[in-house]
Protein: Glyoxylase-like metal-dependent hydrolase (Beta-lactamase superfamily II)
Organism: Peribacillus deserti
Amino acid sequence: MSQFRSDIIKLTLPTPFAVGDVHAYLLKGDVLTLVDTGTKTEKSRQALELGLKMEGYQLSDIEQVLITHHHPDHAGGVDFLSPDLPFIGHANNQRWLTLSEEFLQEHDEFFYSLSKTLGVPSEFIGFIKYLRHSLKYSSARVLSSCLQDGEAVPGHPGWRVIETLGHAQSHISLYRESDGRMIGGDHLLAKISPNPLLEPPLVKGEERPKSLLQYNQSIKELYDLPISLVYPGHGENITDVQELISRNLNRQHERAMNVKEMIKTKPSTAFEICTKLFPKVFMKEPGLTLSETIGQLDYLLDREEIRLEETDTGIIYTLNNRGQE
Ligand SMILES: [Zn+2]
């Protein structure tokens, strides 16, 4: 744990996930706000209490909880705090917190039907039940109020909300114009390009969100914003934001061109491409690797580099010859 500025305190908490530690932030203002909470594990709770203690606080001093997005490593630890506290974030968090039977059914149906169109063989379809695995580290709490793009952060004059969708459909960042500081959740990370995670559509039956295209759009919108420092959800603080944005966009483009080459060699289903891109990791992290693969395919489709053909065994992606130079 380290302190970079007296009114923003970083609290580094362990997670049971491959990503490693997550950072929560204590934001001092008219109220004391905990931005992100860590995971709902005993280890994380102890680290949170210790981090607060070193700053002269305890859990009961926190007056408000704000989450950058619903993922369990950012939102699960809210259960350590009094249920009476204001609990705020983007409205799209709520379905992932409440986890109603209706939503869980919608979630599974979405992934079953998507898997079919992606050409996932029936012997792999069981992965869908593992997608729910991490949700046990989540919290069922209900948001007391919701934040939208452009709104002020309650209790923190000068801070405003920027909607930064892509990694999650509930993702927001907090920005302070006076000194260009941003609390960025998982939107911009120094060493990792955030996964454009697949999520069921917000309204059942509608088209699914195209998370990678959304993500690219969201980071492009930050490019011209004077950001001096990003306090991220994982890893080191970021100072050269424009450089990071360009690097993320370039790397993603290269990955997509690699996928285009695969399709050029052999028209394929998304599943086939995924297992070629991630031969070892696929079985361990099917949700993440399929999200990444579909992101690249959405990108190539959007650029009209490829096209799709629906067949009985799923969608086959082929090169769009019109898009060839
Ligand atoms: Zn996340």
Remarks:
- The chain has nine helices and 13 strands.
